[in-house]
Request: fold
Amino acid sequence: MLVPLEQRTFVVGCDLSLTHALDQVRDLWLSMAARDEITEQTLDKFSLLLIGRFARYAQLRGAVVLGDVTAELTEDFITARGRSRHGHVTDAAIATMHVRRSVLRSAYRALREMGLSDQDPTRDIVLPPRTAGEVRPLSEDKVIALRHQASSVDRPTRHGAAAALALAGGHSGEIGHICVQDLDVSGRRVWMHGSTKTDPRWCPLDAWTLATLSGRAQFVAARQLRTESVPRARLAVSDHHAPDCNLQARACVALRDLLIRIGLAREPDVKPSSITAWAGVEIFEQTGSVEEVARRLGLRSLDRAADVIGHTWRESTTTTDSTGQVQSQGQVPGA
Reply:
């Protein structure tokens, strides 16, 4: 257990105590969750890993102040072995290691934002890839940063709308077609038109995507010169007539702009489709069903759906790691 509040020493020498620093991170995450930039599920998972698992691990390794957390200690935590469901000590699954690194990267991004640290001990920690394909799903910490970046504006932008549609499961070939009339606010869903490679479907919206798209819909509706043109006003690209390929390119530009802003300009396997792939990962983590991933993303092949999320369904084995989470060796739970 963590040291009771009244017994904590918040500052040791001129360095911030580790316990206080992590509490500050969680407070910032709570404020972001209140703005729907972090889902409740992610907040619970990240808090458990950071405040529960990592804090105890670091303290056992003698880390008292924030400066005691080295790259070596951080890598040891990320790669720490755990127990399988049969009680055997096993190596951490790749998915588990990615989740742990995502939590710590998000924590240090928060510390830098608050001016409490300029370090990131995870910066040079390289993990095995989660997928064998050319595109990897966005990690959970990057999704948080993406939402935060898209929300840090004075007015609803096409960038935020494009991000919301991708996070809801829309593909770049669909995003440019979505109009005000496709948004069902009361049903908390948006209609994806489909494309040559995907089927039309309703995609559910979480609190952040719903608020973002609702705000954008109100914004573009107010800019229309004629009332009858409001339903057909596009949410993520301009209303100027353009062929499908141009609409797709415009959507990709908006998404790529956001990826650049959160520091992913030099990642060759991170592309606009990485955001949609994260949506598939999230669906699979919630349902455990590749079929549901295919349905929600409009994909016509289960093999394609499995490939998008990096799930090797033919070789899946379930274990329980040291974080207490049930993992599948072929599963990528939002890492």
Summary: Residues 35 and 220 are 22 Å apart (CA to CA). The beta strands are 11-12, 15-16, 82-83, 89-90, 183-184, 189-192, 201-204, 318-320, 326-328. The longest strand covers residues 189-192.
